[in-house]
Design brief:
Layout (H helix, E strand, L loop, with lengths): L12 E6 L2 E9 L7 E9 L8 E3 L4 E3 L5 H4 E3 L8 E4 L8 E9 L4 E8 L8 E7 L2 E7 L18
Antiparallel strand pairs: 1-2, 2-9, 3-8, 3-10, 4-5, 6-9, 7-8, 10-11
């Protein structure tokens, strides 16, 4: 994926500590003349098999992962999906992403909020924005899932 164009504002994933975990917030804005945002992904993650989400219901949903996406949901712009784990079968090593889908048109502003029991840190994650067929990638600090990833020295999680 090519990096984002330098004339576009860089989205920021911010974090606030809450009593039930760490709330992540992503502000999305589509300026006049820009293409609509239709999908947001955070990742890629290369989890060991024990923590890798598994496709269920004929691939409609993925179950598993280091934490349940149902409980991670806080808020999304109108007409956007809840977060879900997806397996990028078209990418090498088939990494996993957290994904949201919807439609944010030019002139619109939206906020995606999710909660994680894992603090920010670890390896820098990618934030991938889809604007129709155009894909932009940014580096962000998301939930620290390093302990669940391939190549990490400690995999025994209690």
């Amino acid at each position: 994926m090519p990096p984002a164009k330098s004339d576009q504002p860089v989205p920021q994933l911010t974090t606030v500590s809450k009593p039930d975990g760490f709330q992540y917030e992503l502000l999305l804005e589509v300026h006049a003349g820009e293409r609509e945002i239709t999908c947001v992904r955070i990742g890629p993650y290369k989890f060991i098999d024990k923590y890798r989400p598994k496709a269920a219901l004929g691939g409609i949903i993925c179950l598993g992962g280091p934490e349940n996406c149902f409980w991670m949901h806080r808020s999304v712009p109108p007409r956007w999906s809840r977060p879900k784990w997806i397996i990028a079968e078209d990418e090498p090593d088939q990494p996993v992403y957290i994904e949201w889908n919807g439609h944010l048109a030019p002139g619109e502003l939206g906020v995606i909020r999710f909660i994680s029991i894992y603090p920010p840190g670890g390896l820098r994650a990618g934030l991938v924005l889809y604007r129709g067929e155009e894909v932009s990638s940014y580096g962000v600090t998301g939930p620290n899932y390093e302990q669940f990833e391939l190549g990490h020295s400690v995999h025994e999680i209690s």
